[in-house]
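Bug: token stream looks shifted between consecutive jobs. Job 1:
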Amino acid sequence: MITIKVILIGDHKRKSNTFYVNLNKEQPLGNLLKSLNLENYYEDGKLRSDIVIMINGRNIYFLDGLNTKLKNGDEVLIMPIVVGG
């Protein structure tokens, strides 16, 4: 079993923005999003352009995107891109 730390920024539907998820084995990031009911964060297998996901401080665009394998102790930060003035 592996444990992943998840930090959600800008998701007001949850009681806490930081929590831990236990998975049976290493899995792709996309599976974690499905298990958290965050499938609306991606379309056609690609992350929406207004969402940023970092794994251990690295943007998933520089990793393997939604196919990036999560390992024990990984920290996943999920946040919307905020613009405006």
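Job 2, same session, no restart:
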Amino acid sequence: MQTAVAVKNKGGRPKGAVAKVTQDVRLWAQQHAHVAKRRLLQLVESKDEKVAVVAAKEVLNRAYGMPSQVVTADGALAQVFAGIKIVISDERGSRIEAPTTNERAIK
């Protein structure tokens, strides 16, 4: 199994810096977002149900965030994931470990 190794930034843009072009595009988009929001709300009232549903989902996702997606594994797939451990750490050494599937009940 390979292990990921963190590499320090040895040049280029400082960590967290945003390119000027990106800033300009984001600012332009923010200045025109009211037009997009107005149009999206118009599409929620569309006579075409498919269009109305897609527009409604977009409005809800922006208002409340994307719904979480639960993935379940059973049988052979559960065995593949049984040994995987997720560890999240930051530069200060704080760690969060998610329980493995061995530590949870597998149905």
